[in-house]
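Tutorial handout. Part one gives the primary structure; part two gives the three-dimensional structure as tokens.
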Amino acid sequence: MVFDYSKLRGLAREKGKTQEAIAAIVGMKEATYSQKINNNSEFKQSEILRICDVLAIPHEQIHAYFFTLGV
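Part two.
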């Protein structure tokens, strides 16, 4: 299954957060974060919740940022 993370990428840019910064805050290597946001690996629930905290994504909007299907 392929997910569309463009909304997540856009929000990170709006908030001035690089992939490197988000990865560090979440506790993973930048390469690991890159694999996940490029659909080469899956996010764990705990990682999703930490990213939501970092980017101030309300939990009721998680689906819009992490579970929108891509083409």
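Part three, for discussion. The two ends are 10 Å apart (CA to CA). The longest helix spans residues 45-55.
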